[in-house]
Amino acid sequence: GPLSGRLLMDVRLGELPAWLSTCDFSPQGLLGGVQKAWSSYYDKYINVKRGGPAGISMLLAGYCLLSYGWNYQHISKISFLVSL
């Protein structure tokens, strides 16, 4: 695609000076860039889709691991006594 439409991560090192020359460094252009970056960050990390079976299963798996860790000494004493 055109160089001005690419994101920074899609620009090759040799194309960087040409890409920078297509950027708008006016106050309005910089504000638009900050707003676009914030919107991208918000959509990726804050406004994520919630729910579904994957989230619930990870929550249950985490609870099982945490519960096992809390009770490890108690469980290891019981299993030692049972093996006698």
TrEMBL record:
The cellular component terms of Gene Ontology attached to this UniProt record, alphabetical and capped at eight, are: mitochondrial membrane; proton-transporting ATP synthase complex
Name this protein carries in UniProt:
ATPK synthase
> Per the record's keyword annotation, is Membrane included, yes or no?
yes
Which gene codes for it?
A: Atp5j2
Q: Does the keyword Acetylation apply?
A: no
Identify one Pfam family in the record. Answer: WRW
Q: Which branch of life, at top level? A: Eukaryota
Q: Where in the cell is it found?
A: Mitochondrion membrane
State the organism of origin: Podargus strigoides (Tawny frogmouth)
Q: Which family does it belong to?
A: Belongs to the ATPase F chain family.
Main location per UniProt?
A: mitochondrion
